[in-house]
Design goal:
Layout (H helix, E strand, L loop, with lengths): L3 H5 L8 E2 L2 E2 L1 E2 L10 H12 L11 H21 L7 E4 L2 H16 L5 E5 L8 H10 L2 E5 L9 H7 L4 E7 L11 H10 L3 E5 L11 H4 L3 E5 L10 E5 L1 H6 L10 E5 L2 E4 L13 H17 L1 H19 L5 E3 L9 E6 L4 H10 L2 E2 L1 E3 L4 H6 L5 E5 L6 H18 L1
Helix pairs in contact: 2-10, 3-10, 4-5, 11-14
Length: 405
């Protein structure tokens, strides 16, 4: 059975006060806190088994290398990838998407080609493609959203054509919580010969992801949203694509030979991991995956879906509040506005009540423009949240209603 109190006890950060009140942390979509299993793995990685990887013959280097590569194996199984060589460690989702945009896009895109993204994308899944379009002459096109914050599949089908070379789409929206029908979108893209890159930053901590079942060509996520450390992320790529791509960065460990006449590249995955990698962060990622997998995604989804249902019902009791993003399929995000109060004022008042939420455009300005708001308040749920946390949020929002009318 899912025991949320036992889970909360594994998070030291949950046992603190803010402004004299017990912390209610509702900002997991920005970054999650870390359980003791992850913190201990990081401490051990730095204090006992630390050394640089791959190059050393001494014992500590061998231990560090084994731990680093074990994390890659764990990640491969976690995503359902066929081969550890298809798992590239990066600094995070942003670098993973930039890697695809530049290492694949600059070699394969030409004037007249088209890339499709959606109106709900995070800036990190828009700007890299804009940069590549500027250099190649390709065109970036946008799939519109419906009023509930879901994708218009009819519009998507109309935009797909023989010109479409890449579709890059978020699995779960960070600003709306919408769960996109990525399996269907991937098949539709493949039917016209396009590749698909999926931004999974908001998905892997809530949903079981199987890249083989989805059929995606690339899948990206970050550890720090998965109860792991910052500074480490993952790019999954089908071997056939990664083999055909040029290196993204040059340096140590990504080469086979170097001379002043030219260089040759190391085999996958080293080809895309130039320089000293985030060694201990990778170990922390592996620990986070092991910890989360042991709990089980069926139990996690049941707990978080119930919290989302309860939170949606409770927020709708406030007449002054408007939810932004009401798609049927959602995950763990409650975005809202309460006029005439500005989201920043609401966030400040909630903080004084010990409730942490995110305010702003959430690196998704096209979403804000689509819904006609400058910003929203976002309460995002994690594995450690409870009904009591929702009640505290509601209490704080009632204070806002009294203050702003």
């Amino acid at each position: 059975m899912f025991d949320v109190e036992a889970i909360r006890a594994q998070f030291p950060a949950m046992n603190q006060e803010v402004h004299g009140k017990p912390l209610v942390y509702l900002d997991s979509a920005a970054s999650t806190h870390k359980p003791t299993a992850v913190l201990e793995a990081i401490t051990d990685g730095y204090s006992v088994n630390y050394s640089n990887v791959h190059r050393g013959v001494h014992t500590l280097s061998q231990r560090a290398t084994e731990a680093y590569e074990a994390a890659r194996h764990t990640t491969k199984d976690f995503l359902g990838a066929a081969d550890e060589a298809e798992i590239i460690f990066t600094r995070g989702t942003t670098e993973s998407i930039n890697l695809v945009a530049h290492a694949w896009g600059l070699d394969h895109l030409r004037a007249g080609d088209e890339i499709l993204v959606t109106e709900m994308e995070h800036h990190s899944n828009i700007v890299p493609w804009q940069l590549v379009c500027q250099r190649t002459g390709a065109r970036l096109r946008y799939v519109p959203l419906l009023d509930d914050g879901s994708i218009s599949l009819d519009a998507y089908a109309e935009l797909l054509s023989a010109k479409t070379k890449m579709v890059s789409v978020v699995h779960v929206s960070n600003a709306l919580g919408t769960i996109n029908p990525v399996a269907e979108m991937i098949q539709m893209a493949h039917d016209v010969g396009a590749l698909v890159c999926v931004d999974g930053a908001q998905a892997v901590q809530h949903l079981a992801v199987d890249v083989a079942a989805l059929g995606c060509d690339f899948y990206a996520f970050s550890a720090h949203k998965l109860y792991g450390p910052t500074g480490i992320g993952v790019l999954y790529g089908k071997r056939e694509h990664l083999e055909a791509m040029s290196p993204y960065q040059g340096g140590g460990d990504m080469i086979r030979t170097v001379s002043f006449d030219g260089s040759t590249w190391a085999s996958l995955p080293n080809k895309f991991e130039a320089g000293t990698p985030a060694i201990v962060q990778a170990v922390g990622l592996g620990a986070a995956i092991d910890w989360l997998t042991a709990i089980g995604f069926e139990a996690i989804a049941s707990h978080e879906d119930e919290l989302l249902r309860y939170g949606t019902e409770q927020l709708q009791t406030l007449g002054a509040l408007r939810l932004v993003g009401t798609a049927t399929r959602k995950s763990s995000v409650l975005s809202f506005v309460m006029e005439p109060a500005h989201p920043s004022d609401i966030g400040t008042i909630l903080d004084l009540e010990g409730v942490a939420v995110r305010v702003g455009h959430h690196c998704a300005q096209p979403v804000m423009k689509r819904f006609g708001v400058p910003a929203t308040c976002r309460a995002s749920l994690g594995i450690y949240n409870t009904h009591a946390d929702i009640d505290r949020l509601l209490q704080g929002l009632r204070t806002c209603v009294k203050m702003f009318g």
